[in-house]
Amino acid sequence: MVVTPSFLAARPRPERKYLRPPTPIHFPESEEMPETGVHLELRTALYLLVRDFVGERGAVGSEQFVYWDPSDPRQCLAPDLIVRLGATPGPFPTWKIWERGAPHLAVEVVSPTDSSEAAWQQKLARYRKSGINEIVRFDPESAGRPLRLWDRFDGDLVERDLDGEHALLCDALGVHWSVQSDPTLGRVLRLSQDAIGQALVPSAIEREQATLEREQATLERERAALERIAELEAELRRR
Length: 239
Hints:
Elements: H1 5-10, H2 37-54, E1 58-61, E2 66-67, E3 76-77, E4 81-85, E5 95-96, H3 97-100, E6 105-109, H4 117-130, E7 134-138, E8 147-153, E9 156-159, E10 169-170, E11 175-182, E12 186-192, H5 204-238
Parallel strand pairs: 2-5, 6-7
Antiparallel strand pairs: 1-4, 2-3, 4-6, 7-8, 8-9, 10-11, 11-12
């Protein structure tokens, strides 16, 4: 008989005596962190877009703590977006990698409090320990490099050269990243079916708006056709 971890987990634990009671480790679900209104809008828009795009294919989160060391709750991150394909979708308080596996993707939307390169390198060092495969850093205020990407390669996180043919392709999602201008928020991070950002993945609101516009156009055509029929009938009556 082959004894698998799942088989062992399913077996009831026998009655035993222990030399001391266990010491529970607390993994916080939240922390009071200052967040600007613009950062909140950028992060929320990206979360809703990606959650809608992923649908039932995986789990998508935003600002939940990601823990990778079951013995040390200080070893954590709180990305603005995480995605793990194949995981059960739905809300979750925290993400413990030893229980759910490492997210395939994490996105950081830079805020004024963590925009320095030194702060980013400290955060990137934690990402190297986390096991997350793709890291995206989006800085809407950066004129030269608003978007930077890292891939896990031979156990390391290596930054991409964004001049390559598939440089902006998100391996986890199968679409491209695209920095776009928004009249209210300035630069925003979007998904695109093509590499140059001309075939944007629509948000739920954009899809709803497009549906309303199509319905309105259909109504206008039907009204114009009825008016034309009425004109022809009136002309026939005059003859």
